[in-house]
Amino acid sequence: MQDSLRITASKVDPGLLALPWSTTLAKWPSEHIVSLPKGLSRHLVRFADLSGRVVAVKETTAEMAQREYDMLGNLARLDVPCVDRVAVIAGRTDAHGDPLPAALVTSHLRFSMPYRALFTRVLRPDTANRLVDALALLLVRLHNVGFYWGDVSLSNTLFRRDAGAFAAYLVDAETGELHEEGLTDGQRAYDLDLARTNIAGEIMDLAAGGRLEHGVDAVAIAD
């Protein structure tokens, strides 16, 4: 274990110490990596084996990793559907002593998939509508506890099939803010407008890739 390594966790899994933190995440050896579908992210994210379970490891700044770790803990206490936090790893250095990004470790949500991985062929309009409905329900729950997302999208959400419908889970809380006094009308409206814009863009992207039935109105689905 590196002397400079700092681990923040409610309970430290000893397996964390065996992961190659002195190597940049992009170059982790294959024996540590688990191959699973993943969504789009502004940061590098890879799935890894931690003591026989799958975790997601995201490289980011120490400040952002700690902030998101704290936020996920708060959302879990409020019983909001989201991924479980595992740890923040900071103080990483490579073999030459040069600094490496901090890492946020979260549990992989079993049986969940990013929206792109749900469609290996062509996305039917009713399926797209069910996905958006699930995301809308998640957004209502988040707003009801005073959470302003600031980056609502299908890409920042994981989905589980649930008796013919979908259940949505927040997977990226990096931009979120929790307001104990509740959200203003302006904050709610901004999240909704951003959701419409991002979802329409993501559906259009599927259409451009030939994964959406011809003639489907992406804007109508987003609304």
From TrEMBL:
Domain of life, source organism: Bacteria
Record organism: Microbacterium maritypicum MF109
Name assigned to this protein: Aminoglycoside phosphotransferase domain-containing protein
InterPro entries in the cross-refs: Aminoglycoside_PTrfase, Kinase-like_dom_sf
SUPFAM superfamilies for this protein: Protein kinase-like (PK-like)
Residues annotated as domain Aminoglycoside phosphotransferase: 45-148
